[in-house]
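Researcher: I'm preparing a figure for a lab meeting and need a structural model of a single chain. I don't have an experimental structure, so a prediction will have to do for now. The sequence is pasted below. Please return the structure as C-alpha cells so I can convert it later.
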Amino acid sequence: MPVRLREDLRVRLVSTRTALRDRNLARLMLSWGSWVTTDWAFLITVSVMALEVGGPAAVGLAGAVRVLPSALLGTLLSPLADHLPRPGC
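Model: Understood. Here is the structure written out cell by cell.
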C-alpha cells in the first residue's frame, strides 16, 4: 500500500473513532449510514424489478421517475428558499 494512501486511511480512521466517542454524533452517523444503505437497497430492488418487467428501458424510466421530481422542483424552488430567512441567522 502506498505511503500516502496509508496515511489518508489512518487519518480517516482516527477521525471516525474521535467522532464515535460523541454519543450524539455516533447516533447521527448510524442513522445516516442506515438511510444510505436503505436507499441503496431500494434503488437496487426497483432496478431489478423494472429490468424483469420491462427490460433496460424500464430501468431508465424508473430512474428518471425517481430523479426528475427532485431535479425539477429543486430548480424551481431554490430561489424561493434563498429569500426565506434562515433560523438562527
